[in-house]
Design brief:
414 residues; mainly alpha; Glycosyltransferase; four-stranded antiparallel β-sheet; globular
Length: 414
C-alpha cells in the first residue's frame, strides 16, 4: 500500500480537526464510567489520545493516553474479565500493544495473558463464538499483535485449527455456521436453525481476512491460505445479482428469503468488501482484489437514502462509511472512493447538534440492547459513539496511517 495521504483539505479539514479537538476536550475529563474495554471504554479512548499525540505532540495528548491505558490495564489485574477483543481483556492488551508501537508507555510483560489465551484456545471442541467481536477472530487479532513471540505463534496455530474444525463445505467454498444460540433474539426468530452470517462484525468476512493475515505471517501458512481462499470464494458466490440494493445480505440460511441490507461496517457491502480487500492484499490475489473493488464501487455510488445511516458512529454510521471508503481510496487511488469518503465525512460533521450529546453528537442506540428502548443517546464509546467518530475524522485529516483500526479488520497490509 502506498503512503497514507490526507483525505480532507481546506475548510472541511479544519472543521474536522476542530471537531476532534472539541470531542477530546470532553473525553479527557470523563470519569471512565463506561468501563475499561476497547470497544466501549478507557482502552478505546486511549487510542484516540495516542493518535492525537502523533499529529500534535506539543499538546500533551500522550499523557492522557498513558493515564487512560494505565487505568484500563489495572482492570485486567483487579477484576474478572471475559477474554474477547472488543469487550474483554485481550482488547485492553491489544490497545497496550498499539500504544507501545507509538512509543507510549504500556505493560511490558503480557506473557501471562498469552498463556491464559493459549490454554483457552487448545480446548476442544470450541463451543464459543467464532467472530471478531467476541470470538476466535478477535483473539486472532490480538495474537497477531504479539508476534513473533512463541506463545503468539502457538495461539495463532490453535486459532487456525479451531477455525478449520468449525468450517463447513458450502458450494465450491468454505463457510462458518452460526448456531441459533449464538444469535440475538431478533435474528434467532428469523433463523431458527442458525445461519451463515455475512457481516464483518459477527460473521464470515472477518474470518476470511484473519486467516489471510495469519497465512501472510508464515504461521500455519498453507492451511490458513486454503481456508481463506475457500471462504473468499463462498462470499463472492453469495453476492446478490446486480441490483439497486446491496449485493451482500446480512445472512443466509436454507429456506429463508435472502434480502439486501444496509450499508455499514458491521453488515452490508462496505464491511464485506473491506475484509475481501484485506484478504486479497494479504494473499497477493489480484483477481480477488479487482472483484472486491468492483463491488465496492457499486456500493460507493449508491444513494445516501439507501444506506440506512442515521448517526455518526463507526459501526453503522456515517463516520464508519467515511473511514472504509478512505481505506479503499488509500489502497487503490480510485477517485470514486475519495469522493464518497469525503461526502460521508461531510455528512458526519453535519450531524452535530450543538448543545446535545457529547460535543454535539448523539447516536441512535439502545442502552439496554432492546429494540423497544432505541432512542437518541450520548455515547462516548469507540464502536458506536463519539470516540470512534473522532478517530475516523482524525484519520481523514492527518497524513498518518491509522494504527487503531485493526480491531475492525480494516488495516490493509502494506
Amino acid at each position: 500500500m502506498k503512503n497514507w495521504t490526507t483525505l480532507l483539505d481546506g475548510e472541511l479539514r479544519e472543521q474536522a480537526l476542530r471537531t476532534v479537538d472539541e470531542i477530546a476536550e470532553v473525553l479527557q475529563f470523563s470519569q471512565g464510567l463506561e468501563g475499561p474495554s476497547l470497544v466501549g471504554g478507557l482502552a478505546g479512548r486511549a487510542l484516540l489520545f495516542a493518535e492525537l499525540q502523533r499529529g500534535r505532540p506539543q499538546l500533551g495528548h500522550g499523557g492522557h493516553a498513558e493515564r487512560l491505558i494505565h487505568q484500563a490495564a489495572l482492570a485486567i489485574e483487579e477484576k474478572p474479565l471475559l477474554p474477547w477483543l472488543h469487550g474483554g481483556f485481550t482488547g485492553i492488551a491489544w490497545s497496550i500493544e498499539r500504544l507501545g508501537a507509538l512509543g507510549l508507555h504500556g505493560l511490558e510483560d503480557m506473557d501471562e495473558i498469552d498463556q491464559v489465551l493459549l490454554d483457552l484456545l487448545t480446548r476442544q471442541p470450541w463451543s464459543a463464538e467464532y467472530d471478531l467481536l467476541q470470538g476466535l477472530v478477535g483473539l486472532g487479532v490480538y495474537a497477531l499483535e504479539r508476534l513473533p513471540r512463541p506463545l503468539a505463534v502457538q495461539c495463532l496455530e490453535a486459532i487456525v485449527a479451531r477455525l478449520e474444525e468449525r468450517s463447513t463445505r458450502a458450494g465450491s467454498g468454505l463457510s462458518w455456521w452460526t448456531p441459533p444460540h449464538h444469535l440475538p433474539p431478533q435474528q434467532r426468530a428469523m433463523y431458527t436453525a442458525g445461519c451463515f452470517n455475512l457481516g464483518a462484525a459477527h460473521g464470515v468476512p472477518a474470518v476470511v481476512a484473519l486467516l489471510a493475515l495469519i497465512s501472510r505471517t508464515g504461521v500455519a501458512e498453507k492451511k490458513a491460505r486454503e481456508l481463506a481462499q475457500g471462504g473468499a470464494r463462498w462470499l463472492l458466490a453469495n453476492a446478490l445479482p446486480h441490483s439497486p440494493g446491496a449485493r451482500f445480505p446480512s445472512a443466509v440460511a436454507p429456506g429463508v428469503d435472502v434480502t439486501p441490507c444496509r450499508s455499514a461496517w458491521c453488515h452490508g457491502d462496505p464491511g464485506v468488501v473491506l475484509c475481501l480487500v484485506v484478504t486479497a492484499q494479504a494473499l497477493g490475489d489480484e483477481q480477488l482484489e479487482r472483484e472486491a473493488l468492483a463491488i465496492a464501487r457499486e456500493a460507493a455510488l449508491r444513494p445516501e437514502e439507501q444506506s440506512g445511516v442515521c448517526d455518526a458512529g463507526l459501526c453503522h454510521g456515517a463516520a464508519g462509511l467515511g473511514h472504509i471508503y478512505n481505506r479503499l481510496y488509500q489502497v487503490s487511488g480510485d477517485a470514486t472512493f475519495k469522493q464518497t469518503a469525503t461526502e460521508w465525512f461531510t455528512r458526519t460533521l453535519r450531524m452535530r447538534r450543538p448543545g446535545e450529546g457529547v460535543a454535539g453528537f448523539v447516536f441512535w442506540s439502545s442502552p439496554t440492547g432492546k429494540n423497544e428502548d432505541m432512542g437518541w443517546i450520548a455515547d462516548k464509546s469507540l464502536l458506536n459513539g463519539v470516540t470512534g467518530t473522532a478517530l475516523a475524522l482524525l484519520a481523514a485529516a492527518q497524513p498518518h496511517t491509522p494504527l487503531w483500526d485493526g480491531m475492525l479488520m480494516a488495516s490493509i497490509p502494506a
